What we know:
The protein contains 10 helices and 16 strands. The protein is an alpha+beta fold.
Amino acid sequence: MTSGVRSQKPEVRSQESGVRRKPILYSVFCILYPVSCILSLIILLLSLGCSKKPPSVLKRQQMLMGTIVEITAISSEEERANLAITAGFKEIRRLEEMMSTYIDESEISKVNREAGVEGVKVDQELFDVVKTSLKVSENTGGGFNIAVGPAIKLWDIGGEEHLPAENELEKIKPVIGYKEISLDEDGRKLFLKKTGMGIDLGGIAKGYAADRAEEIIKRLGIKDGIIAVAGDLKVFGKRPDKKPWKVGIKHPRKEGAILAEIELSDEAISTSGDYERYFIKDGVRYHHILDPVTLQPARECQSVTIIAKSGIMADAYATGIFVMGPEKGMELIERLPDIEGVIVDKDGKVHISSGLKGKVRIVGES
Ligand code: ADP
Ligand code: MG
């Protein structure tokens, strides 16, 4: 660039030096040269403008992790957006194959099979997700507990609508302690100390998967979008009109209705609700979030929505705080610096954390 500018100057001067000899030609050149420069600049700018299409919204869905995953990508290059979305789905499938207890060959299934026998060396990612789970368990007073595996199997919500007998639940209570999950950092091994124990990552893996998919999609050049793994969303960048994304919180009791709206960019939002997977028997709702103490569905909330920086945190705390109930749960939200939330309690009353006041718009009160 600089050398080009320099080389032009002597040329102009040499034209200047020929002024008196060819006055007419010179004056025509003097007028035409800048005009042609400006014209070519305008043409260049116009052609640049033409090649850059306005950004469009590309949205695709796939069944993964036992639910519908929807990825939205904003880009002016459709092919790039398509490739990125495909890579996002692939990443979520990779994590499902590692963390699902429904897949016999998954690493977590191997860990569960070796319960009471020996530790199993696992991928660093799985090790870290379990480690984070244990931290969230501590912070939620055991409300979040990935050792609920045997109880989840017994209830089989979404499968047969069967009520486990109290003695069946009593029998498995001794193997529900998350403190019996041992982490061997050096060997990167997970060991479930008691026979019959089982880890279930259903309350945290979807949020984690949304984080990883976002990372991949961004790496492939997409700056704005949403990863929605059912009720676990990771939102990044802005909408095509450059405004923050508007996310709706489902009404827990009116199907298809929105309870509240919130504007987000570069945040995760997760909702745990008793309306996602449930059955009703003799007028009682039995759903998929279990109180690790009673091994019955947690009864204090209809839904808990958590907003956090990462999907893993939003997902795990939504589940754990659902179990804690509205009072203790809101206390915890206020105590944790990076977490905000909206809790709908068992009576349908909406509780909003102080950091969200004025940011959440209630559109359909319970
Ligand atoms: P969803 O699966 O609808 O996104 P959650 O994130 O709340 O909802 O996860 C619920 C799942 O978490 C259950 O299906 C089960 O696999 C697991 N789970 C249930 N109760 C607990 C609990 N107390 N702690 C941790 N995980 C749980
Ligand atoms: Mg969760």
